[in-house]
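retry 2 of 3: previous attempt timed out while embedding nicotinamide-adenine-dinucleotide. Reduced batch size to 1 and resubmitted. Inputs unchanged:
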Amino acid sequence: MTYSGRVAIITGGRRGIGRAIACELSGRGAHIVIADRLEDAAADAAQQITSECGSRTISIPTDVTVPEAVQELVDKTLAEFGRVDILVNNAGITRDNLLMRMSEEDWDQVLAVNLKGAWNCCRAVIRPMMKARYGRIVNISSVSGLAGQAGQTNYSASKAGLIGMSKALAREVASRGITVNAVAPGFIPTYLTESLPQELKDGMMKLIPLGRWGKPEEIAYAVAFLASDEAAYITGQVLSVDGGMMMM
Ligand code: NAD
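retry 2 succeeded.
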């Protein structure tokens, strides 16, 4: 699979899974726009990806919860590269707590970044993609959105919501050559999972048939496939990359 000349926006791409996706697509010839809210860290990551992984990577500091900022991200991408072919909605946060202790603010924040942030980005790229009659949108969901996770009513709802959104949008834009899919990672050690209690991690490990945690690159390979020309006949799907955790 090659992505030569393609342009990909990756939200939350400065570290963790997003960075691995940026590196994988860059290594395969796509130009990358890292859309992360932390300006300096995102600029450093873009420089490193350009020198270590392959194609030109730039950063456009963006908070995905702000629709105007997201529109500016897409406008600047079009001004810089003339096209946007791939959108990976990867930016995500957790604010875990049991429902009876969860604040309304924690609910709102997680939904605002994980679900509405992705919707903002889809809304901003969809016109140029429709005009080009080409697009690949990959939304990063989670096993937590498929099975639910105690202590994550906000996060599970946001990740399940992404799946519904992916399927609805897939139907809306299929006739224009745009595919919309979701990837549902299992447990991937990153900053996001650092603070999870050890008992929870031990419990999760017992549910993984492959008997190990996943790596950010293993999510990136799945995203790269769904973002490729070769995946043209796959839309509205959820691909679990979780060591068999969600096998049914
Ligand atoms: P991470 O915390 O390392 O990376 C998340 C990135 O999102 C960060 O760079 C952060 O700055 C960025 N971000 C947060 N809020 C933002 C905003 N408002 N606007 C723009 N960028 C913002 O976490 P990660 O583990 O790499 O997670 C990446 C994605 O994968 C998330 O959507 C997460 O929910 C999902 N996921 C992770 C796991 C896992 O086990 N790590 C499992 C399932 C799903």
